[in-house]
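Let us begin with a simple case.
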Amino acid sequence: MQVHRARHLLAASAIVSLLLPLGSLAAPPSAEKRADREALRAALLAVLQRPSLKVSRVGVHMQSLDDGSVVFTHNADELLNPASNVKLVTSAAALAVLGSEFRYETEFLVDGMSAEGKVKTLYVRGKGDPSVTTERLWGVASELWHAGVRDVGEIVVDDSWFDMERTPPGYDQEDSDRAYMAPTGALSLNWNAVAIYVRPGSGPGAKGIVEMEPPSDYFIVENQLSTGARRARRVSVTSDPAGAQQKIVVRGQVPAERGGATSQWKKIDNPPMYFGQTLKQILNTRGMKVRGRVRQGLTSSSARMVYVAQSDTFDVLLKRLNKLSSNFVAEQLLKTMGAEGRGAPGSFGKGVEVVEQFLEREVGIARGTYVMKNGSGLNDANRFSAAQLNKLLRYMYGRFPLAPEYLSSVPIAGKDGTLKYRFEGSDAVGRLRAKTGTLEGVSALSGYVTSAGGEHFSFSMMVNDFAGRAGPIVAGLDALGAAVAATGSSLGPSSAVAALAEGGKASGAIDDVAARIKTYLDLGRQRDSRNLGFLRTAWRSERDPAVRAVLAESLYQSNPHDYLGARTLLDSYSAGNDVYGRLREVARVLSVEVPGVTSMVELAASGNTEALARVLELAGATGADGQAQAELSVALGEVARTAPEALVVALRSALPADRDAATTLLARSLVEAGQGDHPFWKSLRRMLGAADPQVAAFAKGLDSTLSQKVAEAKAPRPSEGGGAVQVVAPAGGTPPPPPPPRPTGSAPEARTETRPGG
C-alpha cells in the first residue's frame, strides 16, 4: 500500500514539474552562488560605465536557465532596434510552424513531350526554396536528361507561390545593390545574388577581364575595367535592373601583378528570370536544345510532372540563416510561413501574422508590445526589448524536440559564424552561443552561455544610438558575455572583463613595432589563406592597436571573400594617433605606404559606405603631413573614379572638418588627373537633379566648393610661374549644407559582406 502511494506521489511530482516554469523547483541559491552573482553583477555594472556604453541606449537582460532567477537587468523593457537579432524570432517561429523536417520543393513539369524527347514547354514552379544554387541546377539538368528531355521549346517560370512584393518593409530605407539586400522570390537562385569575377588582362594598359558566375543571357555586362601596374585593386561593380535583364557595370583598375581572379557579389532584381535564364544556359550546355525564350507565367493544368527538386531539411537551412545571418533566407522564411499558414500567395504581411500568433499563443509575448515589420532585422523596421528576446530564448531552450536544432543554428563564440573572431582568450569560447546584430548605431548580441561554474544562462544585450565606430561597443558586449561565462571560475568575471578591456595600449619602441608589423604585412601580401590560422591567433592576442590593425588588414588581404575579415579591418582601423598616427611613423621607418590605407581604399572604392567614412576620417587626420596628404589625395581620386556617387553620399555625412580636408585633397587629385570628363564630375551633375531636395542641395554646394578648390589647386605657386594643369569643372552653387541628423537607432551601416549572408 505504501509502495503504491509512493508511486502515485512520484507521478504527481513529475506532472507538476512539467507544468511549472523552468527552474521553479530548484533550491534557493547557496552562499557561494550568491557570491558569484554579486561578483558578476559588479563586473557587468563596471562594463556599462565604459564611455562608449554610458552615452548609448543599452538594454540588458540575463536569466539563469537552471533556477529561473534574473541575474542582471538594465533597461530590459525598453523597445530597441535589435538589428539581426530579429532572426532569432523568425527562425523560432519557422521551426515551430514548419517543423525541423520541412523541405522546400521546386517542381519541373512538361507540356507536349514527344517520344523523341521534344517538349513544347518546360514549366518550373517554385515554392520559395532559398537554397537552390547553380550546382543544384546542374543536378536538375541531369535528372531532366534521364527523364527523356532532349529538346525544349520554351521555359515558363512560375513564381506565383509568393506575391510580387519582392522587398520587405525597411529595405526601402537603403538604396543599395549589395547582396544582403537581395529580393525574395518563389523561384530564387544563389540567394538572388551573382558573383562578378575580375582579373587583369595581358599587361598594364590592357582591358581587364570580367566574368559572371553563373553566366547567362540575363546579364548585360559593361566592362570599363583596365589593367594597371599598381599593386592595389580599385574596382567598383554596380548592378541595376534592365527590364527582364540585369545590367552589370564594372569600373576601375586591377593590377597585373596580382594575378588570379577576385569577386564581388551583387543582388539581382528579377529572381524568376535569373533562375530561368541560368537554367536555359545549363540545359544547352548539358546537350538539351532550348529553342525558345524564357518567360514568366502560370503552370498549365495539363502539364505533367517530370521531376521535383527537394531542399535539405529545415534544420540544415536554419544554420545558414543564423550562423551567417542571411537576410535573404529570413525573408524567404517569412513569406513561406505566410503561404503555408495563411494560403498562397505568401506575403510579408501574412508571415508576420503567423509569427505574431506564435509569439502570443506559445511564447506569451502579446501583440502590440513590440514592432516587427520584416524577418531579417534590416534597417529601422523593428523594435523588441531585451526582456522579450530573453523570454523567447528561454521558451525555445525548453521546447523539446526543437531545442537542439535551434541552439545548434546559433554561432559559437570563437568557433564559427559571425562570432568566429570574437571572445578569443576568454571562458566564452565554445561556451557561448549567440546571434549578432549590426547596423549603423546598433549592435546586439543574444543567446545562451554555460558558465565556467556549470550554470546555464540566457541573455539579450542591445545597444542603440552610439556615435562613432562599432568596435568599442562590440568590445563592451563581448566583455558582458565573457563575464557571464567566467562566473564560477577561479579568476572570476572581473578578470574576464579586464582581459577584454576596451582598446589597448601602444607598446615598444617604434623600430621594434615596425619589425613586427613588417612580418605581418609580408604574410598579408602573400594572399595565402593558409596563413589565416596564424593571423587570427596573433590578432586575438595582440593588444597594441596599431599592430592589431595591421593584422586585421592581413586577415582581409589573405581572404578578401570573407566578409568577417573586412569587418575585422573596419573595427580595428581608426584615424586616431594610436593607429593611423603610429602607422604613419611605421611607414617612414619601413619606407612604405601607410599600412592599412590601401585595403581601406580598396573597400571604399567598391562602394562600402563604412570604409568610405573611414577614408574621409583619415583625410581629416593627415594634418600637415605632406606624404600622408599625397597618399590620401591619390586614394580619394581613385575612389572618386570608381564609386563617385557613394563618395558624395559619404561626404554629406562626414564631419565638417573631415569633409573640408577631403574635398581639398580630392580637388588636388582632380587637377593632377587633368580630365574635365572625370567620372566624378558626371556623377555630381546627375545628383544635382536628385529627387531628394537635400541631396540635390548638397550636390550643388559640393559642386561650387570643389570648383573653387580646383581653381586654388591650379593656381601657380609664386615659384612655379604660370604653367598650371588644365581641368574643367562645373561652376555655380552654394556652400554644402551640414549633414542630416542621424535617425534614432536605425540607419543601416553598409555592411561588408562580399558574399550573400548578412
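The second case is a distinct protein. As before, the sequence precedes its C-alpha cells.
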Amino acid sequence: MGLLQRFGVTPRPSTPQDGASVAVDFSRTGRSPVGWSSDLSRILALPRRDLATSYAAADLEALESQLRAPPGPCSCAPRPCPSRLRRVQALALLEASRVGGLLGPIGTGHGKELTTFLMPMAMPACRVACLFIPASLLSQFNAEWDYYGAHWRLPNLAGGRWFRPGLPVLHVITYNKLSSQEATDLLERIRPDLVILNEAHNLKDPKASRTGRFLRYFEKRPETRLVALSGTFASKSIKDYAHLSRLALREGSPLPLAHHVVEEWGTALDPGKVVAPSGALERLCEPEEHVREGFRRRRNDTRGVVATDESALDKPLIIRPRYPGPVPTELLALIELAHGGERPDGEQFQEQLQAMACARQLSAGFYHRWRYPRGEPPELIEEWFAKRKAWNKEVWEELKGERREHLDSPGLLTKAAIRAHMVPPYEGDKPVWQAATWTDWAEIHDAVQPEPQAVWVSDFLVQDAAEWARTQVGIVWVEFPELGERIARAAGVPFYGGGRAASEAILQESGRRSIVASIKAHATGKNLQQLCRNLVVTPPSDGALWEQLLARTHRPGQQAARVEVEVCLHTQDYVEAFATAQVRALFIQQTDGQPQKLLCLCGNSPTQ
C-alpha cells in the first residue's frame, strides 16, 4: 500500500500514485525497446569490483595514519572528537586515489563533508583543488573546517590564516559564484588539477551557465580529475549525472558516454507515465530483477564508484498528513479559476506553468501579481512586456548554441550587445553581440518598473502553522518567503530565509523554540538535529529535495527517540505534489540504491 493511501488521500487519476504506476502496457505506448549500443557493450565489459573486499583493514589504518594530524588540544566539546574515519569516507578516499576520480552516490549523514576536505591530501600529486559547495553551506563550512582541522591534516585553504609548503591549495567556491558574470573564466584563472563537487546535483543541467563553464574547463583541460559526491545524483532522470560520471571515470563510466544513448536508456529507467521496454538493458539484470535495480548494481560494482545503501540513522521517522481547515470555499473557487487559466485579479495566463504556480500559491492563501507604483499606462505596459519577451527569447536562443567566455549568461550577453551598439564603436578585447532586438528593448526597458506584490486572500494556513509552532517545538518549512514571514510574525518566532546572515543564525538555534525556515535556503546540507519535529506547509514535488529536507533533522546526532514530520495536504495541488515526490523517490531508490526516507521509514513503502 502506498504512502498516500495510508494517509487516506487520493491524487487525481492523471497523477501517478506510487511505484506501480511506472508499469504500463508497452504494446500501447508506441515506445521501442532499448537497443544494443557500443556504450552498452563497453559497460558490460567493464571489470566488476567488490568494494567490500577491495581494501583490507591495513589499508584503512594506513590511510588514517597518513591523514591524521599530530595530537594536540581541541575545542570539539560538546561534540565528539572526529578522530576516526567512517568506513565509507575511507573507501571514497582510497578509491579516488586509486582510480584518479570518483562518482560517490553517498547518502545524507554519511560524512561527505570531511571526505571533501581530505580529498586533496589523498589524491596523488594534487597541487591545486577546487571544492564547490552550495552557498547555504558556506557558514557551516567555516565552522566544520576548524572542527575537523584539529584532528586531520587538511590542505592549505586559499585565503586562509596559514600556509604550509608542500601541501595542496584548496579553493572553496559556491555554485552561485560560478553562476556570476565575473566567473565566466574563473576555473581557467585558478587552473585546478582536481575538482571536487559536494552536492554535485547542482551541476545537473548542462544548459545552465554554471554547468557550461564547468564543462568548458574540462574540455580545455581533460587531464583534470573530478570527484563528484551527492546524496541524490538523479532526481528525475539519469541524464542528471551522465556527464558527471563521464568526466569522473571517463571510459570507465558505468553510464553511457553518448548523449543519444543516455536519452534512450532514460526512456526505460526514468520515471514517467509512459516507459519503454528495457530491451537490451536486460543484459544488466539478474533473473527477475527490475531493470533499475540491475542498472544500479552494475553501476555500484564499477571501479571508481563508492555508494551507500543504508540509512545513516537507525531511528524511526514518522510522516503523517495535516489537514488545516476547513479550507475557505472562496479560496477553493479561486484555485479552480487558476487551473482554468485566470488569476484572481482577472489576468489571463499565457502558459500552463503559470496557472499551476498560481494554484500552488493560492493553496497557501495568497497569489503574486505585478504592481505599477509609477502609474504607467496599460498601452506602455503591454509594449514593455512584448519587447521584453522578444529580447528574452533572442537571449535564450543565443544561449542554446555554443557558449563562450564572456558570452555564457544573460548578463554577459547584455553587456556584449551594449558594446556592439556603442558610438563610437567599441575597440576593446571583449566580444560583441549584434542582437536584433536590443535597440528596441534598450529604448523602453527603463520606461516601466513593475514590482512583485503578494495579495493575501486567506490566513487560514498561516494561523494553523502559527498554532503548530506555538504549541510545540520544531521547524515550519515553507516555499514562499512571504508565507514564512507571515507565519513567523503570527507565531512570534524567527523566520530564516535566504542569505548568509540567515545561514549563520539558523545554525546557532539551540532547539528550545520553534523556527520557520525556507525550504530553498535551508533544506540542503544544514545540521539541524537539535530539533526533531517538522511541519512542511508547502510540500515539494521533488523526491530528492524531500530526502534532503528530512535529513536536516533525521541524521546522526539526533538525540530524540524519533523524528516526526507533518505534511499539509489540504488541497489537491499539494496532494499531487506529494504523490509526484513519492514516484520520484522510488526512482531514486531503485537507481541510486539510497533508501529514501520518504519511502522506507514511514512504516510502508509504495507498491513496487
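The two ends are 10 Å apart (CA to CA). The longest strand covers residues 128-133.
Keep these points in mind for the review questions at the end of the chapter.
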